[in-house]
Amino acid sequence: MLFMVQMDVAIPHSVDAAEADRLKALEKERFQELQRAGTWRHIWRVAGQYANVSIFDVKDNAELHELLTGLPLYPFMTMKVTALYRHPSSTYDDDR
Predict the structure, then answer these.
(1) What is the dihedral of CA 18, 20, 24, 26, to 10 degrees?
(2) How far apart are CA 37 and CA 39, in angstroms?
(3) For 82, which of 4, 35, 46, 78 could close a Cys bridge (C-beta 3.0–4.6 Å)?
(4) pTM (global) more than 0.70
């Protein structure tokens, strides 16, 4: 199943800068691992914001939930999740 997820990140100023940097590094490592596996298919930065729009390819809602709640920056994120379905007018057999 494909999902579009908008992630807005707001790390409180009370979080130590070194800890915030550590969490960001872990987040990047996890993202790249999931991208190489084909699970985190696409990511785009939202211009002017500490936010992204991503496309995930997972088995079901439960797998997406597990993945998102396991992200290092999850406690500081607000997310909007949208399930996607291939458009019948698409000229591609596989919209990967």
Answers:
(1) 70
(2) 6
(3) 4
(4) yes
